[in-house]
Amino acid sequence: MTLEQDILARRTFAIISHPDAGKTTITEKLLLFGGAIRDAGTVKGKKSGKFATSDWMEIEKQRGISVTSSVMQFDYNGHRVNILDTPGHQDFSEDTYRTLMAVDSAVMVVDAAKGIEAQTLKLFKVCKMRGIPIFTFINKLDRQGKEPLELIEELEEVLGINAYPMNWPIGMGKEFLGIYDRYNKRVEQFRTEEAERFLPLDEEGGLAVDHPMKVTSYYSQAMDDILLLNEAGNEYSEEKIRRGELTPVFFGSALTNFGVQTFLETYLQFAPTPQPRITEDEQFIDPVEYNEFSGFIFKIQANMNPAHRDRIAFVRIVSGKFERGMNMTLARTGKSFKVTQSTQFLADDREIVDEAVAGDIIGLYDTGTYQIGDTVVGGKKAFQFEKLPQFTPELFMRVSAKNVMKAKQFHKGILQLVQEGAIQYYKTLHTEEVLLGAVGQLQFEVFEHRMKNEYNVEVKMEPVGNKIARWIENEDDVKESMSSARSMLVKDRFDNLVFLFENEFAMRWFSEKNENIKLYSLL
Ligand code: G4P
What we know:
Layout: H1 3-8, E1 10-17, H2 23-33, H3 45-48, H4 58-63, E2 71-76, E3 79-84, H5 94-99, E4 105-111, H6 118-130, E5 134-139, H7 148-159, E6 162-165, E7 167-170, E8 178-181, E9 186-189, H8 194-197, E10 198-200, H9 217-232, H10 238-242, E11 246-251, H11 260-270, E12 277-278, E13 284-285, E14 294-302, E15 311-319, E16 321-323, E17 327-330, E18 335-338, E19 342-346, E20 349-352, E21 355-357, E22 361-366, E23 375-377, E24 395-401, H12 407-420, E25 424-428, E26 434-438, H13 441-455, E27 459-466, E28 468-472, E29 487-492, E30 497-501, H14 504-513, E31 519-520
The structure holds guanosine-5',3'-tetraphosphate (G4P).
């Protein structure tokens, strides 16, 4: 296979969902199809207890978070599939968002009974901003949920994206008979042996064979719905899917392994191949046109194995091929080095990787060399990929060293963890107290743990709570007197002014009183 064919076979995506929608279950089914795991229950370390014996970072053990399945890879129908994990709400952090910078598409799993939930919405917004294609899997059809039309409407209204149902449920819950597959033009029956599972459609779109299902009200309801979709629904457009403006919707039940394979096969046909990325000087690095190795670091995972005190920098390969032993240059410093140790993450194993190509994720052992957003290149041409966006934090914590004698280590630790992207740094205007910002509580816990273990500093943490952070377009017009308890003025790590508002109300009130101040949020 040529390098180009190798690259074009890649599909790299993340599954986004609210906790409990069924992400783990669906991931597991996908890995089973791909032959990457043999038993169900392998992915869900927290419940099967499989990882309890391994020595992962203590905090992860305590909280039952599994970091081992950060990247999963398998082969299916000539494709090489990379699934990047985006953890659930209690382990939610900026990493979760940044992971979405490293994929080419996203699969959104929705619980049919719950519809669009908070976490899904947050993650969706990040995908939308990047314009990446989103494929929707509406799960748990074996249970009674919302009406399918209602779900489609909710999707369109809450998320502001057009939806195109690729298939449609016939019945639901106890009366779930199967799905009407608009795309493959067949009906797939629920809980039916493989040989009889698929029923063909006739030219008018009805079942072409005699079948007891045909006389049920569920079938006629589904047919009515489909007629409606055909006449009044969105038009199918691959172009719009590619631009992230239209989401193809699939129904199914991950737990009973129904509709997952059909989803996977259809998804793989439409999911984008590894996409180009833009450099800081606005050049496109196209994986197919540019043959030299390049990639960027989107995540740094500390202490995956405390026995080695290692850190792993996760690299999304943008172009070319990685080979173990090759020379790489870190664009930020211009330093070159030979990469002898690298890992790939496959379900619960970490394997040494010898080769990987654009679209793949590799892990580089890191002894403090890398920062989030760093570019590594293999060829002579040096360039830097566009900076990864900074995300607007929602949670704040005032921190200080418990022991004032440790001020030096305290600042060193914070500086490094901030550079690594573990947490965001802010300070108050005159007193220069340190405030840390995060998008998820876990970031504070990891911070506290690492300060103690890696920098030997115990930190005092006082919650400042939820705030709405807003940056300012016209900083010169800001006066310090505008700062109050409900609209606190602070500085970020680049010395930009930021208002931390108590809540939406406080922000609106501020804006009404100070119409000339132009506020904006980061991603
Ligand atoms: P998550 O990773 O998105 O958090 O969800 P996960 O797959 O862990 O699924 C959450 C719960 O929903 C699990 O039940 C799982 O078995 C169930 N589930 C997933 N897909 C389906 C489905 O298609 N139909 C039905 N009826 N249930 C589904 P649990 O009781 O919380 O966990 P477990 O003890 O069964 O593992």
